[in-house]
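Bug #77: duplicate submission created two jobs. Keeping one. Sequence:
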Amino acid sequence: MSVRIVPPAPPQQGNGGADNPAPRRAPAPRRDASTQMFEVVVPKGVQPGAPFALLAGGQRVLVTCPPNATEGQKIRFELPIALLQKKTGQASKMADVKLAYDKDGWTRTIRVTDMKFQWVRMDDKGDVELNKRFHAEKSAYVRKIDFLPGEDIRIRSGKLSLVPASEAVVDSKIMGPDGREIVGYNDIASAQVQNFDDKAEWFFTTCAKLCVEWNEGHMRMNVRRDYLLSDSIDAVMSLSRKDLRKVWRFEFIGEIGIDAGGLAREWFQLVTTEIFDPFMGLWQSSTVNQMCMQINPASEISCPEDHLLYFRFLGRVMGKALFDRQLVSGHMIQHIYKHMLGWPCTFKDLETIDEEYYNNLKQLETLSKKGEDISMMCLDFTVTEESLGQMETVELLPNGADVEVDNDNFPEYMEACLKYRMLGRVKPQLNELLLGFYDVIPEPLLTVFDFQELELLMCGLPNIEVEDWKRHTEYSGEYETTAGDHPACTWFWEVVSEFDHEMQARLLQFVTGTSGVPARGFGVLQGNDGNIRKFTIHGIEVGFCLYPRAQ
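Kept job's structure:
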């Protein structure tokens, strides 16, 4: 697709002398000198009001076809000059940088109408896909939060929902306390293509700019060790959003100690360890990965009066920890990190929540594609939940118990199941968790990370003992008889040993879904059934698959 830059109109000059001046024309309306106008032909097949993507000045942007335009017609739009120009004296070529997000076919780009980030999915021809009906391989959803004033001025409210990924947007800039722009699109695009360490440093440097200066006030957190959680909740939940970005100093009442950083580290670890403890009833171990924690849908039973307060508190604590370069204790299930980032959740993510449930739906999808009559399964748009031995039927849509699942509406059934497992099942808890987190961290600041990097940033790089890893590894398939003596296995461990901590953690994330290592080492690594399942290297024939994959 060709895009033409429209130069500014030349100044009007007279063609007569002083005694015979040329007739004056009404001056054209002035265009903002900080923007550059582009002209493009509406691509074939694009309807009025529909979006299409293109490259303008080296940047991938999303343009919406005007209501009065049709395919083949020329339209014009403007982009900020700062978005297109290189920064003088810097090696980064901003004119050639675009956001390098690309996950499951979804790409984050910039929307011309308001300069906000938006997810789009491109087809094989490079055009924006506009699938309206659910597709297991192509459809994705992103959580959306509408912030609302709270009853308490210090604590805002919000409404959480799950929308198609193409409808989710986020600002591409961050404003400072004085109203000036601290971070813009160029900064985010430049940081996003850096390595993890450089991203993290950019993130923390920007957080320091948002931090309230010491002379404007700081917070002293006095807590009793025996009543750590209750004292901490009272202290943190009494703070305004501005207070959350002030410097905190901790004191354990009755103990001698000056907080030079050590007490803060201890507080974050102790508080998050206690609140993630399954015995609290707020979180539970994932059935797929015992190292990861997931929200307990029945948390209200454990804390009937204030279970949502705990989630708002935890969100604030995790946000403050990230803001202050502290670590939290507790690896969460993958899709929660995606919700925190505003990343697309796909049907494949359901496998990380409940593998058996995912496989059952896949089998039904296979039957439907083969033309089998799935109405014979006697399914409807409901799910059954068990709580304290009691079975409860939950409708996936209004009057879902009266809607029979058949071949025609099966895509909608899969969509409803995905939305319920991704959000609906724990919507009140997740809503509070995210509201608390965003009380501290501006959402645009997180757009430079993927969900695996966010886990590493919040939980830290694990202390991986490669020899322990290797010692507790099993071999199967082509490597079953030779075990670790096969040349490919020897090369594998040589490469892993040469990896830095980040790459070792990423390999562990790729295989197990989390960077967490059991406290007793790889010898007690658990599978999705809760039993010990050692790390396994499975050899296959070259013709079957050329690339490594995790199961």
